[in-house]
Amino acid sequence: TSDHGMCQIYPERYIDISKYIDINWIERRHGSNPVYFIKPKPKYADTIYTLLSSVENIRIWKNENLPPRLNFGTHPRTLDITIAADSSWSIGFGKPNKRYLGAHGYDNKNKDMHTVFYAIGPDFKNGYTHSEFEVIDIYPLLAYLLNIEIPEVDGKIERVEDMLDKR
User: Fold this and answer.
1) How many CA atoms does the CB half-sphere of 38 hold within 13 Å?
2) Do residues 83 and 17 touch, judged by C-beta distance below 8 A?
3) Distances (CA, A) of 8 to 11, 133, 143
4) Which neighbouring-strand residues pair with 8?
């Protein structure tokens, strides 16, 4: 398996965020292509959100409106605004870095972000194909196979246990 998929990116599909907003309006920012988190200076929050909302090929959310499926929750690192590039697009501040031809971190609904999982051994059904599942379910699966206790996590053994041969 791997921890994520990859998406090809193109230099002509780069969006320079600083062409749409003044970076002096930002108190703090972090991230990298394809996702940035911004903490605007107080009086610029609505302006930044409004201006970036009209930019094609990106998505923007106020922290409280992040889709739950993205699993960002309310973690402090998400700051106040999240900006995400559409698949195969790049975002940044200033000139693009032309040496990158691929990226990951795009919307997890994008098939390019999915990974593959192969398993063989006495605990797995032979010749079985499982439907898609979240990579976070591998951790409780491995813990089950190794018979070790783990703390509560987002992954669920129940979503993958039908791949096991329970003779």
Assistant:
1) 29
2) yes
3) 10, 23, 34
4) 102
pLDDT for position 3: 72
Q: Give the DSSP letter string of 34-80.
A: TEEEEEE-GGGHHHHHHHHHTSTTEEEEEGGG--GGG--TT-GGG-S
> So what's the pLDDT on residue 6?
82
Can you tell me which residue has the tokens 């994520």?
4
Direct distance between the N- and C-terminal alpha carbons of the chain, in angstroms, rounded to an integer? 25
- Measured CA to CA, the distance from residue 163 to residue 84 in angstroms comes to 34
Copy the structure tokens of residue 147: 């018979």
| 3-state DSSP assignment of residue 102 | strand
Give percent of the chain above pLDDT 70. 97
For residue 148, how many other CB atoms are within 10 A of its CB? 8
**DSSP β-bridge partners for residue 60:** 83
Tokens matching residue 42: 């107080």
* Rounded distance between C-alpha atoms, residue 75 and residue 34, angstroms: 18
pTM of the model: 0.76
The average confidence (pLDDT) of the chain is: 90
**pLDDT reported for residue 167:** 63
For the chain, give the number of residues. Answer: 167
